[in-house]
Amino acid sequence: MEETKEKILKYLNKVPQGISARSLLKRLKLRKSDYYKALDLLRAEGKVSVSKSRRIRKAKEKKSMVEATIVSLSKGFAFARPDDGGDDIFIHADHLKKAFIKDKVKLYRVRQSPKGPSAEVDSISEKSSRVITGTLTRTNNRYEMTPDDSIRYPIRVAKNLPRGVKDGDKVQAQITRRKDSNELIAEIVKVYGKSNRAKICADAILDQYGIRTRFAKDTLEEAKRASSSQISEADLKGRLDLRKRAICTIDGAGAKDLDDAISVSRTRKGYRLGVHIADVSHYVPEGGALDEEAFERGTSVYFADRVVPMLPEEISNGVCSLNAGTDKLAFSAFVDLSEEGEILSYRFRKSVICSRVRGVYSEVNQIFAGKADRELKKKYFPVIRSLNAARKLAKILKKRSGENGSFDIESTESEFSLDENGVCVEVRPRKSGEAEGMIEQLMITANQAAAKLAKSKGIPFVYRVHEQPDPERVKTLVQLVDAVGLNSRTLKQKGELSAADFAEVLDQAKGTPIQKVISHQLLRTMAKARYDSKPIGHFGLVLADYCHFTSPIRRYPDLAIHRILTAMLQEKDKSKINRFESFAVGAAKSSSKSEVCAMSAERDAEDCYMAEYIGQHLGEIYDGVISGVTQRGIFVELANTVEGFVPADSFQNANYQFDGMITQVDRNTGKKLTIGQPLRIQVAAADVASGRIDFVPAEDEK
Questions:
Q1: Cα separation, 152 vs 287, whole angstroms
Q2: Does 141 share its domain with 90?
Q3: Is residue 186 part of a domain?
Q4: How far is Cα 695 from Cα 227, in angstroms, rounded to an integer?
Q5: Residue-wise over 54-73: b if at least 16 C-beta within 10 A, else e?
Q6: Among residues 120, 118, 96, which one has the least CA distance to residue 108?
Q7: Which of 327, 311, 198, 329 is nearest to 256 (CA)?
Q8: Contacts of residue 594, Cβ cutoff 8 Å, sequence gap at least 6
Q9: Alpha-carbon span 252 to 663, nearest angstrom
Q10: Which residues pair with residue 645 across a beta bridge?
Q11: 252 and 289: one domain?
Q12: pLDDT tens-digit map of 391-410
């Protein structure tokens, strides 16, 4: 039978157009019963197909597909990133099938080469928007647009330009293709203004990432109705009355969306922590306009000059903000801990609170440092015992976390000062004191307790998860650790790594010039934290159970689990809680996507503001530290956190070669440029539109 099947397939290879069953039988001169039996088997195996006209053809071979997203587009080629991870895949323009940046595609003929993987696009499974932002430039009497997105070449602009548009403007364009070729054409649909202003570029970045700055009419109307309602007796029914407790909020001086408050007291066994969170789910009903809007936004977005809130200000800064001296509905977590910081028990209750003090981080830090004046001491007197207990508890929690293997990675955040015109006039490192660290530890504990409760009850939930690092990335980390002369033994052990293994490497680098590069590589090695409906644990925090419970004003996952936990407290029938299963899955997936989008937008906007600031200091000389090394040159970070690029060929009479890891070596003199090394630079150029900053070596470094 196998021989008969093989004869049929061999002949069908010669007639790709197909042949009738009778003609094929006649040509092959096979026994009729064997022929039809073999034909039936081949059809069942999917190796032949039979048309309505009874013509037999060899079935097309099924392609092995890889699902991916187009992440960069250049003239002549593109790169796609596989959805399940792995290296980016090269695609020649001839095999792109008109796929565009951010399109979801199916790839086939994936093959490996010394230069990396390559493939061809089989089909576009999901088209992205063809509306992008960029900067308009005029060259040779025609306009082109340099895209902000990962399109690596300028696009010709259609002739019908809007009135008043100028060379150098930041614009938005609809991208089409010429009918007679694959050439992209940009039709300008929106003009933001001059691209040398960070504020203008930030406007474009919001559009680029699809972040809406305005709320729909029905959403605003629902928010106004919620904010105008007073707390009624019905609202208070069943709630724990905590209005006489020594509760306070602690936030930055400029914060308006105060969504968490604390109270801490000593007990016979240790400590009782109270974390009281704004009861946002009470004011944002399930399935309403507010809820749908919050789900789509996923998170608030923070730029140097503005906040794009997840919820309208009537909710975020108004009825839900835990303003001092005002009765507010809350969702309270009470966690009892031992003297060693071990969680002994926990309970969650709907409550009503009245914050005694609107705490400010800088003020609390002064109190802890013993530098508070009489007025400050008077302000915090109603909650000072709670603050002192909270301070002691936070130190215990921090110590316990470190003993379990958790570690802090050095990462410098930037803080920006703008003038009255919105121009960035100062950049500096964001300082974090003891009060900030204290609140972080207390919030982590409340988040952990909420996740423990959900897991113990087996209810649908949205967990904050952080998976094991990818083995290939660990190998890269090992190479770096070995290259800088540290001991990588703990990273080479078989089986799963622990956070303690990473902490051991970081301890070796602590206080040395390479501490920052090791911290940076550890961050790159670890997986990105995300949301999931399954409790798979948090690698970085060394916690089996973790979630985000404490910020429902600005994060949708927190709002989602408030809704689920509310149902758990109210419903005795578990089947009514299980209805949240698909909701939890959807909220986790959507919120993870929104978080990545918001972080990318925030990072791009920061680059623009940094370029705007340093552009006012062209030609000036600064002392910096080498923060990165590449094939083309080095990155240098200044004390104020501004980072710029120094090309290797800008060093006079030198021939620098990259060692593939962290050093450029001058082949003429043997001089090295390596991470952590100080270097004096001169500011050469700054492009606000792209956020690019260029340095050159100062005269004494050349």
A1: 42
A2: no
A3: yes
A4: 51
A5: ebbebbeeeeeebebbbeeb
A6: 120
A7: 311
A8: 297, 298, 299, 556
A9: 40
A10: 635, 694
A11: yes
A12: 999 999 999 999 998 887 76
| Mean pLDDT value of segment 126-141 | 90
Token reading at 196: 């040398």
Question: DSSP class of residue 326?
Answer: S
Q: Degrees (nearest 5) of the Cα angle 471, 475, 476?
A: 120
Where on the phi/psi map is residue 533: left (φ > 0), alpha (ψ -120 to 50), or beta?
alpha
For the domain that residue 138 is a member of, what is the CATH number? 2.40.50.640
Number of domains in the chain: 6
Whether 298 maps to a domain, the answer reads yes
Same domain flag for 84 and 187: no
Contact 431, 414 (CB under 8 A): no
Assess if residue 324 is contained within a domain. Answer: yes
Per residue in 365-388, pLDDT tens? 999 999 999 999 999 999 999 999
DSSP string, 248-292: EEEE-TT-----EEEEEEE-SSEEEEEEEEE-HHHHS-TTSHHHH
Q: Provide the domain limits for residue 173.
A: 131-195
Q: What Rg do the C-alpha atoms of the chain give, in angstroms?
A: 31
- Single pTM value for the model: 0.84
Nearest partner of 130 among 99, 96, 175, judged by Cα:
175
Q: Could you tell me how many residues make up the chain?
A: 702
Query: What are the angstrom distances between the C-alpha of 350 and each of 60, 242, 244, 332, 508?
Result: 62, 10, 16, 6, 46
pLDDT at 662: 81
